[in-house]
Amino acid sequence: MTIYDDGPVHEPFGPEYVRPKNADCSDCDCCTAALCAKGRASLSECAGHVNAPELVERVGNCPCSAERTRGTLSWRAAMVRAVTFATEKPLREALEALLARIADGPVDGGLEPLLPKVVVRRYVKWAPGLTPELTDFGRAYLDARRGVPRVESLVLVLSGDEDARTVQAAVPAFSADQLVTVPLDLVANSRTELGPKDLESVTLYAEVNPGAREADDVVLTKVRNPAMAVTARPGSPDGGQ
User: Fold this and answer.
1) What SS3 state is found at 50?
2) What pTM value is reported for the model?
3) E runs forming strands in 46-113
4) 3-class secondary structure, 36
5) What pLDDT, in 10s, does the model give residues 159-216?
């Protein structure tokens, strides 16, 4: 019996047959390269692509696919989620003030009763005895609330990678020459009426943060397709009876 990413395999060909072992990942000591390639491009991370309990435990904190690792699909989705909450359903004032204090300098976590509420949202990294620190998501939230105002921008999709579940896009409000990596499902969905095969050279609109520190920090929200057909409702001024 041999153990692979998807669990134990009982070889049917007798003791002389040995299934080739998948190559180990060069960036972690818990996964194969093939598993990490799947995990990086998945919101369920590496653990979502194995089914044996002992393997789920082993790869459950893999840095190659983790939400905390910049550039993974899970990280990009969490950045979008943080900005969406900031612009559409912000924290109450006391929690937002706590994030601002943590951003401004050292805070004694033991004296902050509200700290667990921002830790559980993954806006802050903290453990007893340590100094609370903003995560990328906490910083994205604060920037959306108190940084350079977000603006609507053209978004020209130049290419897509279905395996990585991302697209490369030009966002003029951010940069004339730096491309931005965007989760594929953010631009190819029921709201835009586009599929993964429809994206190349498509022009969309989205709200973006033009003051982003670098391309990876550009977060698109409220993506819309200007070419999408608008169906008038019966009885409406533009298409009714």
Assistant:
1) coil
2) 0.84
3) none
4) helix
5) 999 999 999 999 999 999 999 999 999 999 999 999 999 998 999 999 999 999 999 9
